């Protein structure tokens, strides 16, 4: 009789209730304003304010939330330091003053936190106690100790945690020592830095440059606790990437691409390779690369009026002019004359012949008497509009500000109006039977490298299908969905108008923020617009401020771009993996992605088995990135995004994992690259020079190395789809008789989730899950003080159940595992 295999899909956790940065402008790209129609002027208020990049330091996550909510734009590459959070922002001179008033420290050029290499003198007086094993009584634990090399240099990264870490007075410190290899003594004492987020102690951590790889480390708490830990390799001995094969074709993308180029190439690929590729069109059109034509007339005081056209600028709004006219006489009523697209406001006069029309009155007249040309007119921002309007010296032109061009930008007219986003689907068997992988690039408009990385990946798949065995394995055994730009409206705006644009172009702002001087601050952050752990439910990292770069939208899934992602994963239920590709910062992360700041309450953490699968997959993906030119994404930048980066309420990864059970990664490509000549880490940027030093930051190098990583993610998915082998597990040290209480833990041969009981009942999917000791740590340790029987089974990431056990049925054969710990006093 053929053995029946049971593969269980782990139940998805239920959905929870309830910065303008321009790091590097492309060479020669200088924004310019277009000329106004002949015979018309333009208010100086529509001119751009000069912006510049500054380094800033914040006291912590709470201040970060306040700064983001206030509308300031911070880059993704923020980093945690013991003194708070450091990052970069693009700001005006006025905004610098506002940041200082909020308590933000503006750092000088090159000024930054530097890790201390000296031990805290306080340790000398505390003494050293005997080493403590990893167990229930340990006050100090090594979370991880990783050795890696880059550019010929060696580094040790350590995280350690103390059970007394939350103690505020006196602050508990930690000291790290390491040996110089097997058989050598501990030395080289260094102080570790305490990491606190939203008032909660996380752990102590440091990155050290070392000449030799240590075998072990020793960590000592200032309160006397001591523990040792083995050093592991991080991304060492990676297999060669596919590009190492001389016959393998790669390096297809020759520069940054705007959305039209990306979408046209996707359609061309589908036409060229119909046997393995097709286009899926997303049903919800974007709101469009279009705007109403506007002008602010009369300054910024109580007499100022903001005027917006009824028609889109390219559909006639840009042809409108508005003039405020004086007339001789007295006791004259306010009136409006319209000749074609020319609007002439006849200002009222009182009995003495003085002008008498207020800004509020003129705004109302324009809305009601412009013959439908004006859709929206109001006093400037929060003004009441009580000031008397002055006549204009000449007609003022309305414009949508979308007709400007950038020096160095690609040629060609940008299509106006709503856009339909194509998805390039690649796979030999596109029938829903193979595991689907969704790659989503450019949620954030200014992030140009993710789009080229995704396009390079598509080119590699189709060009190597018939000649490379590994590529053929990917295409034959996965179903790949590639969204080359999920924010085409914002991306076009970034290319042609304002390079630092992050969001889409939907303007949800009320009158207070709807004047054209705010036009570069409109739009929704698409990666804050989803349903799980959203800002609407009180999670940190999303903003209700419509001019914040983290604006979450008026409601969850308010935007067509986010609706499309949900449509795609609901229509194609075989999508089991997803990567949202961003830049810059060099992080690879997953859930939890958000937390409620008060108490740092995160969204549910993945089960230990899923967490282990994420880490295993990350090591494979990042090893292939490193294999290209030794770029290392360090362990501190891998894990739950709310742990390694910041809280990002309403992100797409959280929704897809918790709602649909999809293994959803987030990737900040373009991380720091070690400069062996200077001894510094060079940070990335959103739009680095395409061709630069091949060993440092460049758009081309990032595109190639991170495409290596995406190709490896496809191999992870292919392996997952072919995995039919049951996991195995055991209880350590195992069942038996013990003369005193004993510490026991579970171990699995691969990433797997363990369900167990200790009350004599049969284990099911509703039984307790074996959890981590703490986040980023291995499984918990049970301190058994009396005779206890453990019953359990394990389920791997592919849904295979250990020993073919069926936890959904009352199986009398009892294929679950069992072990009894007998304590004899």
TrEMBL record:
Q: Which UniProt keywords apply?
A: Hydrolase, Metalloprotease, Protease, Signal, Zinc
**Annotated SMART domains:** Zn_pept
Keyword Transferase in the entry? The reply is no
InterPro entries, A to Z: GH29D-like_dom, Peptidase_M14
Query: Which segment of the chain is annotated as a signal peptide?
Result: 1-29
GO molecular function: any one? zinc ion binding
Active-site residues, record numbering mapped to chain: 668
User: According to its record, what are the GO cellular component terms?
Assistant: extracellular space
Q: Does the keyword Hydrolase apply?
A: yes
Biological process, per Gene Ontology: proteolysis
Cofactor(s) needed for function? Zn(2+)
- The Peptidase M14 domain covers 376-710
Similarity comment text for this entry: Belongs to the peptidase M14 family.
The name this protein goes by in its record: Peptidase M14 domain-containing protein
